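Researcher: Please translate sequence to structure tokens.
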Amino acid sequence: MKNVRNQVFSIQAPSAVVMVRPHNFQVNGQTAQDNAFQSERAPQDGDIAKTAYDEITSASEALAAHGVTVHLFEDEGHSTPDAVFPNNWFSTHAGGHVAIYPMKAVNRRLERRLDVIEMLKSRYRVQDVIDYSGLEADGLFLEGTGAMVLDQIDRVAYAVQSDRTDPIALERFCTHFNFEPMAFAASDEFGTPIYHTNVLMCIATQFVLIGLDMIENETRKQEIIERFQASGRTIIALSNDQILEFAGNAIELQGKDDRILALSQRAYQALTDTQIKDIEKSAQPVPLTIPSIELAGGSVRCTIAGVHLTPRSPAPRHVGA
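Model: Translation complete:
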């Protein structure tokens, strides 16, 4: 029986997203040093670029078929290998607020696009745009909803400590956007630090996917567990192996009839039957096939920037921009 609460709008699950379809995709050499999820075996040729283009095309169409409004932009540049991951350079927030973020890799700073911001202003009610990119000159980075996983309901910004998540930038964002910062150290079984929080956890309306074993401090881990328990969410603990299969890199979205959980086919296959059943109590899993893009060290969540803004007028479910 479908959970009746699933029919209620959730601020955690946006009904519109921005995606970027790459024309010249490749694995970014500038980010390989601290992204252990990147593949060293990724081919650097036209075949992977075409495949990545096709993967985003299919993924955007699949989301639109489930009732999600998809604003699909094209990236034809040769100097922006990670443009397919727009969630790192901007985020949107209820009340009409937009944030633009400072990026660690120099070539990733080229991903910021005025046309995306102008589209948001024209189709949604935007009150202000706060640009943190000037912090790059001081070596302070905060890579958007990769660096932070935001609990929109309880107003907590969970953030793994890394070079891509500076505490000063994090504090500044949380002050501006009314979030409580919850920073913590996390690493894999080999002691390699986790580079982005959104590979470690996904916060949905009624559940959370999280790699608890990677959180280093036991006291902090227990505090995080208690926070989610207090919110009434089901905690779906992911193993280290499941995290490496991108099972934590998912995002809950509002579809036409109910909420969905967008994740990769690889991530979905890594989940157990029990975990899938727990997800299905409040959201329909929607596996998307993006193996070429995952070679770059990110998965479905990274390819999606949620739009938490109020539309100016009804919009089609799948649009060019």
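Researcher: Any highlights?
Model: Residues 14-35+42-312 form a domain with the L-arginine/glycine Amidinotransferase; Chain A fold (CATH 3.75.10.10).
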